[in-house]
Amino acid sequence: ATNNNEAQTPEVQVTIKDLPITFKVKYLGSQFARGLWGIKHTRRPVDHLVSAAKSLPPNKILPFCSLTVSLDGVRMETVTSKQNAVTNFTIDTISYGVQDLVYTRVFAMIVVKENYNLKDENPFEVHAFVCDSRAMARKLTFALAASFQDYSKRVKEAEEQGGATVGGDAKGKSLRKKFAIDLRTPEEIQQDITEQETEA
Question: What range(s) does the PID domain occupy (predicted)?
Fold first, then answer.
């Protein structure tokens, strides 16, 4: 009976109270991204990573990893036969998250490298993960959205307490990190792209 629910996916909603949540996924890898947010900056890297994964020799498989989404960000624990590696992406370095529209079991996020300087040609990286199901990729996207929501609330509260009207400081306050999460289904994203192309 559980399979029927998965097809409808209304129960996918994740709230701040549900965090942290851990997902068992396969890590596709990372690629440079040309921008901070938008499916246009994740599509090509995801295509590239998927085709690289498809051409892996038979004895090589994608590493399994546990992806934990919490209020602090995303923690990736990769387990291989040789070692366990942990990578933390703090919420303020993640700028975008989306369920891919071509490979609907793939979740991709754009991360801004910490300590990058303006001369760095590629400060943005796309990290992509293969989920067991399309519904799981969707849930992962919603989990990150809940984390973003909490983070923006905390930033707003800090700004209000700090008083954003201090002389000459108002401008600096608006520099807080922007981020985006695309909660549309792959079909809705595709339709939007198709409509834009038709108009053009």
Answer: 22-166
